[in-house]
Amino acid sequence: MEKTQPVELGTGCGVAAMCLYFLGLKDVVLTDIAPVMPALKHNLKRNKPVLGKMLKTSQLHWNNSDQIKALKPSFDFVIAADVVYIEESVKPLLAAMEAMVSDSGVVLLGYQVRSPEAHALFWEQCYRIFDVQMVPHEHLHPEYAYEKFDVYILRNKV
Ligand SMILES: C[S@@+](CC[C@H](N)C(=O)[O-])C[C@H]1O[C@@H](n2cnc3c(N)ncnc32)[C@H](O)[C@@H]1O
Q: Is the Cβ atom of 81 under 6 angstroms away from ligand 1?
């Protein structure tokens, strides 16, 4: 079943999801690997007075199909920011995106080149799986846009 609820992959300390929450993406589920969870939960707790609630979290390693299934995909919005930096993680990341996004859904990807190897592999594989649209910089919020950071919309190929 498709979910309008968004999910974030590799949320880190949760900054992107918290910003998106303020922009109206409610009920976002923030995911990351187990070692990140304590710092993430601590950060969300500290921001709870501003957010008005504790955002949901779920442990998710991109390689772990049980953890993916536990989230009961598919999702209409899969969010990921700055997650392409380890070559070995590229294929599991793309597989997790593919498993989680609904047929008519989108992956919103905030992207910066971190590693030339991961960058090359990611885009070579990504274009095989998804239709890729780069959001023009002039469409990004002038206060938050950064010249080295791009935003992409990935959709399942029709
Ligand atoms: C550079 S940080 C970006 C964090 C956050 N999205 C941001 O923009 O501030 C990359 C994140 O991806 C997570 N990550 C890396 N490999 C992962 C994997 N195999 N499964 C799940 N998360 C992973 C890391 O734990 C880390 O939080």
A: yes
